[in-house]
Specification:
By secondary structure, the protein is mainly alpha-helical. 49% of the residues lie in helices and 4% in strands. The chain contains four helices and two strands; from the N terminus they run H-E-H-H-E-H.
Length: 96
């Protein structure tokens, strides 16, 4: 597995073409990669993991590694439920 130090490093491993423009119908899925200005992994980090990093529950590197592993190991198309469950197991946290 590629060593990552940023979300960009993770996104760069994937070619992402938005098959559902304007987010229609894909709210249940997680995309690895970036399409234009849309960056799903950045959203997940900011909304679900950053507070855990700031509280000291996990490190930033652990969060990045878990995102990287989830992108590689959760079957594509990646359901949000499976993706978050994978992150929870990897990081030992609860994602709400």
């Amino acid at each position: 597995m590629v060593k990552v130090s940023s979300i960009k490093d993770i996104n760069d491993q994937y070619d992402y073409k938005d098959e559902m423009p304007n987010g229609e119908g894909d709210s249940e899925l997680v995309a690895c990669g970036q399409n234009g200005n849309y960056n799903e992994l950045s959203y997940i980090y900011k909304e679900k993991l950053e507070s855990e990093v700031k509280s000291g529950a996990i490190t930033e590197q652990a969060a990045l590694d878990a995102l990287n592993k989830a992108c590689a190991n959760v079957k594509n198309p990646r359901s949000r439920e499976d993706f978050y469950s994978y992150l929870e197991q990897e990081l030992g946290i609860t994602i709400t």
